[in-house]
Amino acid sequence: MPEQIGDFHAQVATIVGDLVTRPSLMVGHSFGAASMLRHALHHPETVTGLVLIEPVFFAVARGEPEFDPYVEQEKPLHDAVMGADLEAAARAFLALNPGSPDFDALPPQAQAMMAAQMRLVTATLDGLFGDSGGLLEPGVMEGFDKPVLLMLGSGTTPIFHATVRRLAQCLPRAEVVTIAGAGHMVPISHATQTAAAIGDWAGRNGLAQ
Q1: pLDDT in tens, 2-25
Q2: CA-CA distances (angstroms) from residue 206 to 15, 48, 88, 147?
């Protein structure tokens, strides 16, 4: 894990593009959803449809009442990374989303892996909060003409409700589905409901094949 990672959001979006060899239905969760959004908006010709489950592109929610409180909630995480206390950063990260496991209850190997990954989380700030990809530039989202399904859990952290709300306003062909009783890990905790919602949306938009 490098000490200086750079713009991790940009790097992953580029890797997504390297993997797409034909126009594709793209499904992503959390940071994966935000990375696919960045790829799709800059390369719409490679996308037939987009499913974004709890996307973490928080920059779109700037100015919403949920934004500033969430920035404050994330601050201990990034402060811990800057102080090289990666275990404290992992505890702070898990505390951000209801339903996440207790760091101290994880096996030592899982603790070590998660702690090492915390630098990656801080390396997303430029893309997810600062919009380094220019996704909020005039016309970028408004010009995306492919169908988009935005999904979230009813019990998720408030910033996700704000993010999905704003994305639905910006993307012309967006639909929103909320899975009752779910949190941020909705595709794992409510896999059947998630799959059914995607299948219904894909069928209605001619994407079932």
Answers
A1: 667 899 999 999 999 999 989 999
A2: 27, 10, 46, 10
